[in-house]
Amino acid sequence: MRLHVGCELTFEFPQETPLIAILNVHHSRVADLIGVETFTTSPAIQASGYHDQFGNWCNRIVAPAGAFSLSTNAVVNDSGGPDPVVLNAVQHPVQNLPDDTLVYLMGSRYCETDLLSDNAWKLFEHSPPGWQRVQAVCDYVHHYIHFGYEFSNPTRTAYGAFGEGRGVCRDYTHLAVALCRCLNIPTRYCTGYITDIGLPPPYAEMDFCAWMEVFLGGQWHAFDPRNNAPRIGRIKVAHGRDAADVPLTNIFGPNVLTKFKVWADEAAHTLA
Amino acid sequence: MRLHVGCELTFEFPQETPLIAILNVHHSRVADLIGVETFTTSPAIQASGYHDQFGNWCNRIVAPAGAFSLSTNAVVNDSGGPDPVVLNAVQHPVQNLPDDTLVYLMGSRYCETDLLSDNAWKLFEHSPPGWQRVQAVCDYVHHYIHFGYEFSNPTRTAYGAFGEGRGVCRDYTHLAVALCRCLNIPTRYCTGYITDIGLPPPYAEMDFCAWMEVFLGGQWHAFDPRNNAPRIGRIKVAHGRDAADVPLTNIFGPNVLTKFKVWADEAAHTLA
Amino acid sequence: MRLHVGCELTFEFPQETPLIAILNVHHSRVADLIGVETFTTSPAIQASGYHDQFGNWCNRIVAPAGAFSLSTNAVVNDSGGPDPVVLNAVQHPVQNLPDDTLVYLMGSRYCETDLLSDNAWKLFEHSPPGWQRVQAVCDYVHHYIHFGYEFSNPTRTAYGAFGEGRGVCRDYTHLAVALCRCLNIPTRYCTGYITDIGLPPPYAEMDFCAWMEVFLGGQWHAFDPRNNAPRIGRIKVAHGRDAADVPLTNIFGPNVLTKFKVWADEAAHTLA
Amino acid sequence: MRLHVGCELTFEFPQETPLIAILNVHHSRVADLIGVETFTTSPAIQASGYHDQFGNWCNRIVAPAGAFSLSTNAVVNDSGGPDPVVLNAVQHPVQNLPDDTLVYLMGSRYCETDLLSDNAWKLFEHSPPGWQRVQAVCDYVHHYIHFGYEFSNPTRTAYGAFGEGRGVCRDYTHLAVALCRCLNIPTRYCTGYITDIGLPPPYAEMDFCAWMEVFLGGQWHAFDPRNNAPRIGRIKVAHGRDAADVPLTNIFGPNVLTKFKVWADEAAHTLA
């Protein structure tokens, strides 16, 4: 299956403004790209790119004053199958975890493992370790948080989501990430695209989504506590410790977002 | 049964210091007093008293510089029976609550009803209203909080106790108070004495205790989410919205507490 | 000068819903009323009233399902002069404060005196006690908080306003109230009307306002850290410890506010 | 000048427990080592080491049940001079910062840049950019926080330190780190040794210290908002975004710390 994914963001800047955009498909999917993924700006500006410490591709730009748009487009080969379920993926004792997974056991800006540890163990110590324990966390968070766009709050943390019991996909993910880390399961926060393929209508307006990856059985697996069901067409853009590491754009100055559009669908539907 | 209750607090003050002490048995138990309840200071200082807006007896004192002790002693008639259980005490619709109970539905310093409301309804909307619902809250809080004196934190709120899942009797009570208020049950925070009568040894050192009273079936009933079992010999000193209203002492200046002793036992055991 | 003040609030209720409205002019201004203050509902419902523990007049209503409006209208005699300035109003030592002012030294839901005390003393210990110290607090808060309606957050506390440095009139007032209490000055939170009389255009849409009263020189004085300048035509509706005590309406069920209108002007301009 | 630095930590573990220790001198000082830096455990256990994403040397160990000690010892060549002061170190515009410094502009567990940004700009926008601005932040924090070991709180963040105005060296550093990042100056949190050389007695018991490094004029410079004066003998052990990245030990299980000893002095004084 070929997926067409992309986005367009338009800002109004009162002055020349440096920014970092993390909008390209994650390098782990680069081999799946059909043709070139475009990253364009209007007016056209030269971007310089680098990989951050998590391997995300970051575009550095100095946007001119006035209206400024960023846009990406990519066609990506995808299995067409739902998120894999690997029920027998084992949980590694901490001493056996690869060195580079250990950072994903630590507390971070929006995932206060120090504050939530007691609750994590009380809630999940009797669930079977491994895949079942992560699924138990997802089931819990999925039912625990009262979803509502009106509850969106960019400074809410996992602790806040737990305390208030409400939020959006970002809050579901932060809470599940924090709980898994408390349980000594390396867990990272992901952003990217999810298609509506296979879902019944009506469809909400497309947006970037948040989910998480956990390290079990020697590899990373996607879990999505917001949707909590395998989905078709999940294309990662970035991962990190939490939302602080993977903003779509990190803008160093005042700005107004005037347009925000995201698309993710079967390529046949959208490209000639 | 006659109970002997009292306390002694000694402070070191670097300078003359005004303070308010809420240490006398609550006026609702004054008819049960045998003889006079003493309130003494050393050195002897004249205290002036008043009832605060919750009906608590407050002693105002200007303590001299140096070592200063406050002490109370009372002998109180008590039923000798355990805390009453009134399973059929009904929950009143808000519109039928007496005016003077409504203040105990509001948020307060340590009971953030605005933050905990979603969770309160999610947890308890299916429990039967009235006594059973309050008992469900107490059962929940009793098992939810991980008790430990090392978790004592004088600025922890109900929201903090919920988020961290640990605390002392004050935290149990704040969380249960906040949840009951979210459920539209007037609830107030109480401090006072509880004896060890009827309990097996070993006994911890005596301390003041926190519990709560809820308004059901036209009257106030004691619930104790920390102990969560009827107790013998519960003597209230003060009630209010939360711990901010009923400090043992409210001291307006620097000080060091050098001695703190509480007693509550059958009078025959302790008085000639 | 005669002022015409009033408001109209319209809600949509999915079901019969009990509520408490604190919308009438405060009893301390009742002697200034010209004619009767109206409190009407549409559809017409019988309200029962009571004074809460702060002396505010509270209307209890059970609103029917559907659209429901509350409206008040009053004509009030006013000095026509600006808020009095009493530079020599002294600060009372705590031991000399009247008993009924002491509650306004305590922490409350949105005024965490326990958390802000160190900062209060560090900031203001060198300011002259009394009127000058309160004015120093108001000057500080007035310049400290970055005003913006987009920063409005109904769960922000004084501590949050201090930490984030942004907010609306409610946040200015909570922060100033908390700081004054830390400094042992009894301070209460007020809501009510302020006219635009004497101000240059343009005029913002009318709203209820928040300010505070402090106890100095044996009486209560209005201070307004948001505007921080004497104003003409200030009519108090309610006071309490903080915003948790004086909601315009305390509604016990889901609801949508569909209309909100406030007026406060010279009576000649608005009434025949 | 030769410095002798090291530490000894003893724990009691109820069961076999994995842990990560970050106790060795930072790799940037390895060339200054005289002889070998020892890292010993008692009982002797094989450790495996790795560099984390910040370049810190991490020892992974599975400690046996019972008493367990970790100890390091190193002799390090040091300039013997105080922390360098480079008044003309310039602040780079964001667009000119090296890619690998950008992570040190982001929010992190204990440094909530999103919450403190308004205050950072209000406080420091008029200070000269570069070294002077960082010094202004340090001067501010140094005077702002009320130091006291009794205020130590392992879950306090920069926002909490700002709100409460009290803390220990960790809190000074977190607040200064967060403020500098808000001002677009890459800033990292450091832990390590500081000697008492050049200070008058009396000397407090040795402990690990926290300070920060900022990126100005193309390189990293140490600033120490707690001491706020150049010091002699500063040996870095680790750096990261904040204290969450550089715990002395990250222990995955219950434990009790029974001994904690740190030394840092001129080698001649302590070694034969």
Automatic annotation (TrEMBL), chains A, B, C, D:
The lineage of its organism: Bacteria, Pseudomonadati, Pseudomonadota, Alphaproteobacteria, Hyphomicrobiales. SUPFAM superfamilies: Cysteine proteinases. Residues 161-227 form the Transglutaminase-like domain. InterPro entries: Papain-like_cys_pep_sf, Transglutaminase-like. This is Transglutaminase.
